[in-house]
Amino acid sequence: MDLSPRLSDDAPAETEPADVTADGPTATRRRHLATTATAGLFAAVAGCGAIGSGGPADTEPSERTDETDDESNPVGDLPLFDAHAHVIPTAARGQDSLSADELVDWMDANGVDRAAVMAFDSPEGYPVQAPSWWVLEQVAAYPDRLVPFCTIDPRTMTYGEEAVDVFERYVDSGAQGFGELKVGMPIDDGRLEPLYELCAEHGLPIVFHTDRQFLTDEVGLPRLEEVLASYPEVDFVAHATGWWAHVAADVEPSDLGGRPEGPIESRGRVWELLSTYDNVYGDLSTRAGWNALTRDAEHGRALLETHHEQLVFGSDYLYPGQEVPLLEAFDRFDLERDAWANVRHRNLEGLLR
């Protein structure tokens, strides 16, 4: 049976406690950040903000300066690696399609050096599917700028080895992460377990979308915590309203699909899970992430200061002309340069296979 997903314009539109050992969860690739801080993926693209959008760079990159807290080195000079971007084959939701060329044009205009490009293989994930095989083809023209991710719809795992073969073909073709995982089932659904195990086996981080419709959970995120504890060798990058609503403690079920406003009276489960598990990260993309930082600026700055080793910059760029308010964060929040380096690129570099 051919498991390669087909493009579809019929999919519905998106709507916006486990045991831990005494030593804490098993450590993941985050421990390697100390040795990959200024090397690795950005060795070939330092200074690529000046690269044109007509194709991959063919010039030698300039060396970046030391990423320590130095007023002579503004934060904007640090590499910027977008953890969550897209290419979209056809128009959807009244917005134009987005090609790899257009994505790179936007990156050049906004100082983004590299971007992880998500796939949409599940039909409910987006009105138009962007299958993994297609994403891999589209980003191939920009190997120094665009990093492909892949997905497999968990319902196809019933095909056993054939589905596993499809997954492994994606990895062999260059997929460096798994995402965007966005399916209409609970985050601890048994059908997801084979995917979590495959990502553990191949060392792929998972970017997942959780809200009231996709990868659902209850207030307090007990299902997510069970997954984090059950798969300590997998890095999970949490995205969307179901996660970011929990930046505060007072969460109502309706908040899992929205963006709660107002000051934060007490810190929520986001803080606790980031402190307890080193295999969970926060994807700051979309207005949900921006809202988590700005609804209470004092707590937003504290979140960045406290958990900068587990937060990643992301745009969730889906269509030409989309606004990305998170780009304002680097001027809005006064954070040490070294901490910004983690958020801007080090953390994501450390996660990729």
TrEMBL record:
<dbReference type="Pfam" id="PF04909">
    <property type="entry name" value="Amidohydro_2"/>
</dbReference>
<dbReference type="InterPro" id="IPR032465">
    <property type="entry name" value="ACMSD"/>
</dbReference>
<feature type="region of interest" description="Disordered">
    <location>
        <begin position="50"/>
        <end position="77"/>
    </location>
</feature>
<dbReference type="GO" id="GO:0005737">
    <property type="term" value="C:cytoplasm"/>
</dbReference>
<feature type="domain" description="Amidohydrolase-related">
    <location>
        <begin position="82"/>
        <end position="336"/>
    </location>
</feature>
<dbReference type="InterPro" id="IPR006680">
    <property type="entry name" value="Amidohydro-rel"/>
</dbReference>
<protein>
    <submittedName>
        <fullName>Amidohydrolase 2</fullName>
    </submittedName>
</protein>
<dbReference type="GO" id="GO:0016831">
    <property type="term" value="F:carboxy-lyase activity"/>
</dbReference>
<dbReference type="InterPro" id="IPR032466">
    <property type="entry name" value="Metal_Hydrolase"/>
</dbReference>
<dbReference type="GO" id="GO:0016787">
    <property type="term" value="F:hydrolase activity"/>
</dbReference>
<keyword id="KW-0378">Hydrolase</keyword>
<dbReference type="GO" id="GO:0019748">
    <property type="term" value="P:secondary metabolic process"/>
</dbReference>
<feature type="region of interest" description="Disordered">
    <location>
        <begin position="1"/>
        <end position="32"/>
    </location>
</feature>
<keyword id="KW-0456">Lyase</keyword>
